Amino acid sequence: MKALIELFWFKYSQLQYAVKTGDDLLITILDRELEPVLSAIYQEKAETVAEARLQFQFILDLLRKEADDVSSVLRQRNALQALADRYLSAGSGEVLGGAWVQPQAPVAVVKGRVDEGFLNEAILDCLPDRIAVITPDYRYLYTNPVNAARLEERPMDLVGRHIVEFVGIQRFEQRVKPNLDKCFAGEMVDYTFAKDVENRTIVVRCRMTPCMSSTGKIIGAILMLQEIADRRRSIAA
User: Fold this and answer.
1) Which residue, among 12, 25, 71, 79, has the nearest Cα to 52 in the 3D structure?
2) Are residues 130 and 171 in the same domain?
3) Is residue 102 part of a domain?
4) Of 71, 120, 128, 224, whose CB neighbour count within 10 A is largest?
Protein backbone atom coordinates (compact mmCIF):
# COMPACT_ATOMS: atom_id res chain seq x y z
CA MET A 1 0.00 0.00 0.00
CA LYS A 2 2.68 2.46 1.04
CA ALA A 3 4.73 1.74 -2.10
CA LEU A 4 1.72 2.40 -4.35
CA ILE A 5 0.94 5.67 -2.61
CA GLU A 6 4.57 6.84 -2.83
CA LEU A 7 4.63 5.92 -6.52
CA PHE A 8 1.47 7.96 -7.10
CA TRP A 9 2.83 11.08 -5.42
CA PHE A 10 6.11 10.75 -7.30
CA LYS A 11 4.23 10.61 -10.60
CA TYR A 12 1.89 13.36 -9.44
CA SER A 13 4.83 15.68 -8.74
CA GLN A 14 6.15 14.97 -12.24
CA LEU A 15 2.73 15.82 -13.67
CA GLN A 16 2.59 19.11 -11.79
CA TYR A 17 6.00 20.02 -13.20
CA ALA A 18 4.85 19.11 -16.72
CA VAL A 19 1.76 21.31 -16.29
CA LYS A 20 3.90 24.17 -15.00
CA THR A 21 6.21 23.97 -18.03
CA GLY A 22 3.36 23.46 -20.50
CA ASP A 23 4.71 20.16 -21.84
CA ASP A 24 1.52 18.71 -23.37
CA LEU A 25 3.15 15.47 -24.48
CA LEU A 26 4.52 14.72 -21.03
CA ILE A 27 1.19 15.66 -19.45
CA THR A 28 -0.58 13.11 -21.65
CA ILE A 29 1.95 10.39 -20.85
CA LEU A 30 1.87 11.00 -17.09
CA ASP A 31 -1.93 11.18 -17.04
CA ARG A 32 -1.98 7.75 -18.64
CA GLU A 33 0.58 6.41 -16.14
CA LEU A 34 -1.20 7.79 -13.06
CA GLU A 35 -4.56 6.20 -13.78
CA PRO A 36 -3.59 2.53 -13.16
CA VAL A 37 -1.68 3.50 -10.01
CA LEU A 38 -4.70 5.40 -8.67
CA SER A 39 -7.01 2.50 -9.51
CA ALA A 40 -4.67 0.07 -7.75
CA ILE A 41 -4.73 2.18 -4.58
CA TYR A 42 -8.54 2.25 -4.65
CA GLN A 43 -8.89 -1.47 -5.29
CA GLU A 44 -6.27 -2.93 -2.97
CA LYS A 45 -7.74 -4.35 0.22
CA ALA A 46 -5.80 -3.44 3.32
CA GLU A 47 -4.55 -6.27 5.53
CA THR A 48 -4.25 -4.11 8.64
CA VAL A 49 -5.93 -1.13 10.21
CA ALA A 50 -2.80 0.92 9.52
CA GLU A 51 -3.00 0.18 5.79
CA ALA A 52 -6.69 1.10 5.67
CA ARG A 53 -5.86 4.36 7.42
CA LEU A 54 -3.25 5.03 4.73
CA GLN A 55 -5.91 4.60 2.05
CA PHE A 56 -8.31 7.00 3.73
CA GLN A 57 -5.56 9.56 4.36
CA PHE A 58 -4.39 9.33 0.76
CA ILE A 59 -7.85 10.14 -0.58
CA LEU A 60 -8.24 13.04 1.85
CA ASP A 61 -4.85 14.43 0.79
CA LEU A 62 -5.81 14.14 -2.86
CA LEU A 63 -9.12 15.87 -2.16
CA ARG A 64 -7.27 18.83 -0.69
CA LYS A 65 -4.90 19.09 -3.63
CA GLU A 66 -7.66 18.74 -6.23
CA ALA A 67 -10.28 20.84 -4.43
CA ASP A 68 -10.78 23.09 -7.47
CA ASP A 69 -11.43 20.15 -9.81
CA VAL A 70 -15.10 19.21 -9.49
CA SER A 71 -14.75 15.87 -11.30
CA SER A 72 -11.81 14.90 -9.09
CA VAL A 73 -13.69 15.87 -5.93
CA LEU A 74 -16.64 13.70 -6.97
CA ARG A 75 -14.35 10.79 -7.73
CA GLN A 76 -12.60 11.01 -4.36
CA ARG A 77 -15.94 11.31 -2.60
CA ASN A 78 -17.09 8.11 -4.28
CA ALA A 79 -13.79 6.43 -3.39
CA LEU A 80 -14.24 7.39 0.27
CA GLN A 81 -17.73 5.94 0.23
CA ALA A 82 -16.43 2.73 -1.34
CA LEU A 83 -13.76 2.38 1.34
CA ALA A 84 -16.30 3.01 4.06
CA ASP A 85 -18.56 0.31 2.61
CA ARG A 86 -15.62 -2.07 2.31
CA TYR A 87 -14.18 -1.71 5.79
CA LEU A 88 -16.90 -0.30 8.02
CA SER A 89 -20.14 -1.96 7.00
CA ALA A 90 -21.37 -4.54 9.46
CA GLY A 91 -21.88 -7.24 6.85
CA SER A 92 -18.59 -6.85 5.05
CA GLY A 93 -16.57 -9.14 7.27
CA GLU A 94 -13.79 -6.54 7.22
CA VAL A 95 -14.78 -4.23 10.05
CA LEU A 96 -11.84 -2.14 11.22
CA GLY A 97 -10.41 -3.48 14.45
CA GLY A 98 -12.11 -6.85 13.94
CA ALA A 99 -11.21 -9.96 11.97
CA TRP A 100 -9.76 -9.30 8.54
CA VAL A 101 -10.45 -11.62 5.64
CA GLN A 102 -7.58 -12.61 3.37
CA PRO A 103 -7.44 -9.87 0.72
CA GLN A 104 -7.30 -10.54 -2.96
CA ALA A 105 -3.95 -10.22 -4.70
CA PRO A 106 -3.21 -6.54 -5.30
CA VAL A 107 -3.62 -5.17 -8.77
CA ALA A 108 -0.37 -5.54 -10.65
CA VAL A 109 1.10 -2.19 -11.52
CA VAL A 110 4.10 -1.70 -13.73
CA LYS A 111 5.87 1.51 -12.81
CA GLY A 112 5.39 4.13 -15.46
CA ARG A 113 7.63 4.88 -18.38
CA VAL A 114 8.32 8.45 -19.36
CA ASP A 115 8.63 7.58 -23.03
CA GLU A 116 6.41 4.51 -23.41
CA GLY A 117 9.18 1.94 -23.45
CA PHE A 118 12.65 3.40 -23.36
CA LEU A 119 12.70 4.55 -19.75
CA ASN A 120 11.39 1.90 -17.37
CA GLU A 121 11.63 3.18 -13.81
CA ALA A 122 11.04 -0.27 -12.32
CA ILE A 123 14.33 -1.31 -13.88
CA LEU A 124 16.22 1.92 -13.22
CA ASP A 125 15.24 1.88 -9.54
CA CYS A 126 17.07 -1.42 -9.12
CA LEU A 127 20.33 -0.52 -10.89
CA PRO A 128 23.42 -0.09 -8.69
CA ASP A 129 24.64 2.95 -10.66
CA ARG A 130 23.41 6.50 -10.23
CA ILE A 131 20.64 7.26 -12.74
CA ALA A 132 18.83 10.53 -13.40
CA VAL A 133 16.71 12.09 -16.12
CA ILE A 134 17.26 15.80 -16.74
CA THR A 135 14.80 17.98 -18.65
CA PRO A 136 15.89 20.45 -21.38
CA ASP A 137 15.72 23.25 -18.81
CA TYR A 138 18.26 21.36 -16.64
CA ARG A 139 15.89 20.14 -13.94
CA TYR A 140 15.40 16.68 -12.48
CA LEU A 141 12.51 14.72 -13.92
CA TYR A 142 13.54 11.43 -12.34
CA THR A 143 16.31 10.02 -10.16
CA ASN A 144 16.80 6.50 -8.87
CA PRO A 145 17.28 5.89 -5.13
CA VAL A 146 21.06 5.42 -5.47
CA ASN A 147 21.55 8.87 -6.99
CA ALA A 148 19.15 10.49 -4.54
CA ALA A 149 21.00 8.93 -1.60
CA ARG A 150 24.33 10.29 -2.89
CA LEU A 151 22.73 13.75 -2.96
CA GLU A 152 21.21 13.16 0.48
CA GLU A 153 17.68 13.66 -0.83
CA ARG A 154 14.57 11.56 -1.45
CA PRO A 155 13.87 10.81 -5.13
CA MET A 156 10.53 12.64 -5.11
CA ASP A 157 12.13 15.72 -3.51
CA LEU A 158 14.52 16.15 -6.44
CA VAL A 159 11.83 16.39 -9.11
CA GLY A 160 11.72 19.90 -10.58
CA ARG A 161 14.92 21.13 -8.93
CA HIS A 162 17.69 22.65 -11.03
CA ILE A 163 20.84 20.56 -11.37
CA VAL A 164 23.00 23.61 -10.60
CA GLU A 165 21.94 23.25 -6.94
CA PHE A 166 24.00 20.08 -6.73
CA VAL A 167 26.95 20.64 -9.07
CA GLY A 168 27.61 24.34 -8.50
CA ILE A 169 27.50 27.15 -11.03
CA GLN A 170 31.11 26.82 -12.20
CA ARG A 171 30.96 23.08 -12.91
CA PHE A 172 27.53 23.50 -14.44
CA GLU A 173 28.64 26.18 -16.89
CA GLN A 174 31.99 24.63 -17.78
CA ARG A 175 31.16 20.94 -18.08
CA VAL A 176 27.60 19.82 -17.28
CA LYS A 177 25.61 22.29 -19.38
CA PRO A 178 27.69 21.92 -22.60
CA ASN A 179 27.43 18.14 -22.44
CA LEU A 180 23.71 18.21 -21.67
CA ASP A 181 23.15 20.56 -24.60
CA LYS A 182 24.88 18.05 -26.90
CA CYS A 183 22.62 15.33 -25.57
CA PHE A 184 19.50 17.45 -26.03
CA ALA A 185 20.65 17.92 -29.65
CA GLY A 186 20.56 14.16 -30.13
CA GLU A 187 24.14 13.12 -29.31
CA MET A 188 25.21 10.34 -26.95
CA VAL A 189 27.82 11.79 -24.59
CA ASP A 190 30.39 9.77 -22.64
CA TYR A 191 33.10 11.37 -20.51
CA THR A 192 34.94 10.92 -17.21
CA PHE A 193 35.91 13.34 -14.50
CA ALA A 194 37.69 13.14 -11.17
CA LYS A 195 36.61 14.60 -7.87
CA ASP A 196 37.96 14.59 -4.34
CA VAL A 197 35.78 13.10 -1.64
CA GLU A 198 37.06 12.91 1.93
CA ASN A 199 40.70 13.21 0.86
CA ARG A 200 40.46 10.54 -1.81
CA THR A 201 40.11 10.81 -5.56
CA ILE A 202 37.06 9.29 -7.21
CA VAL A 203 36.86 8.92 -10.98
CA VAL A 204 33.34 9.03 -12.35
CA ARG A 205 32.17 8.00 -15.80
CA CYS A 206 29.15 9.97 -16.99
CA ARG A 207 27.06 8.73 -19.90
CA MET A 208 24.26 10.83 -21.32
CA THR A 209 21.64 9.36 -23.63
CA PRO A 210 18.77 11.31 -25.25
CA CYS A 211 15.43 10.37 -23.71
CA MET A 212 13.02 10.07 -26.62
CA SER A 213 9.24 10.04 -26.64
CA SER A 214 7.32 7.62 -28.82
CA THR A 215 6.93 10.43 -31.37
CA GLY A 216 10.67 10.98 -31.59
CA LYS A 217 10.76 14.17 -29.53
CA ILE A 218 13.66 14.58 -27.10
CA ILE A 219 12.14 15.17 -23.69
CA GLY A 220 15.31 14.91 -21.62
CA ALA A 221 18.68 13.30 -21.08
CA ILE A 222 19.25 10.04 -19.22
CA LEU A 223 22.37 10.28 -17.07
CA MET A 224 24.25 7.24 -15.79
CA LEU A 225 27.04 7.96 -13.32
CA GLN A 226 29.42 5.12 -12.54
CA GLU A 227 32.42 5.21 -10.24
CA ILE A 228 35.48 3.52 -11.71
CA ALA A 229 38.96 2.69 -10.47
CA ASP A 230 41.44 5.55 -10.42
CA ARG A 231 44.19 4.26 -12.72
CA ARG A 232 46.46 7.11 -11.80
CA ARG A 233 46.58 5.89 -8.23
CA SER A 234 47.22 2.31 -9.39
CA ILE A 235 50.15 3.43 -11.55
CA ALA A 236 51.58 5.53 -8.74
CA ALA A 237 51.38 2.58 -6.38
Assistant:
1) 79
2) yes
3) no
4) 224
Same domain, 125 and 232: yes
Distance of CA 147 to the CA centre of its chain: 12
Contacts of 7 (CB under 8 A, 6+ apart): 37, 109, 111
Q: Where are the alpha helices (DSSP H) in the chain?
A: 2-21, 24-43, 49-65, 70-88, 121-124, 145-150, 155-158, 164-167, 169-171, 177-184, 231-236
The pTM for the full model equals: 0.52
According to the per-residue pLDDT averaged within each range, which of 37-51, 53-67, 74-88, 181-195 is highest?
181-195
Long-range own/partner contacts, residues 147-154 (CB < 8 A, 24 or more apart): 147/225
Q: What is the pLDDT of residues 114-128, one digit of tens each?
A: 333 345 565 566 667
Is the distance from CB of 29 to CB of 213 less than 8 angstroms? Answer: yes
Q: Which domain holds residue 154?
A: 121-236
Q: Using CA atoms of 37, 42, 44, 45 in order, give the dihedral in degrees to the nearest 10.
A: 160
The 3-class SS string of 147-190 reads: HHHHCCCCHHHHCCCECHHHHCHHHHHHHHHHHHHHHHCCCCEE
CATH number of the domain that residue 150 is part of: 3.30.450.20
Contact present, 39 and 78 (Cβ < 8 Å)? no
Q: What does the alpha-carbon distance between residue 81 and residue 1 come to, in Å, rounded to a whole number?
A: 19
